[in-house]
Amino acid sequence: MRIGLLETDVLYDDLIQDYGSYGLMFERYFAALQLSNTQPNHEDIEFVYYQVQQNELPVFFDECDAYIITGSKAGAYEDHAWIETLSKWIVEADQAQTKILGICFGHQLIAQALGGKVEMSDKGWGIGIRSLMTAPDSPFAQPLPKYLDLIYSHKDQVVALPAEARCFLSDDFCPYAGFVIKQHIVTLQGHPEFSPEYSERLLSRRAEMIGEPTYSLGINSLKQGTDANFIGRLILDFLRPVKYQTADNEAETSQVLN
Question: What is the tens place of the pLDDT at every residue in 151-166?
Fold first, then answer.
């Protein structure tokens, strides 16, 4: 399987040495999932990197089997040429029914590009490990637990969904924290690829902006466990081409998403 990593930013300078990039965190995340999986792997995963802020985007949608649009320090509503270019690519990719996973900024920009709306939240920052309620009809090949615990780090959020989107993850603070469009787009406001250690270092840089008690509550929450491994396996199955899926998973996916 070939996954295209559309990196929409670079990490802070003091985090690059330990964590590399947004895309590299995904590469390590998926590698760890495969090592921990008791089921036989169906394929190797190859990663192709695209530096979106440097105007690198796939020329053809079939360059990769699926794409991930990463997080970014930028806001989806900001006036940057690369955001406009990526938004047009998202519209065309949606029309071609290209498989895309959007994370945080990627989640927000997909929503905005396809007719939704993104704003800076007047509720403040959503940070740390948070437990959000899932919808009964999972967008993945198997049901989700009633609550999904993931790491969050955002102030912007989706406030209106695209017409064809179906929300599957929400709470009062962030009502549209995950949505699906047909069988080819899944998005998450949370960061399954973030480790607690990375999150703590990231949040510590933003402590003054975040303010108390939100900052301390968010930092303390990082001691909890998350559902990152569980959701990661479902994400990999979503990204995987049908030819690599098991017959059972293929049937389950068809039943859930149709």
Answer: 999 999 999 999 999 9
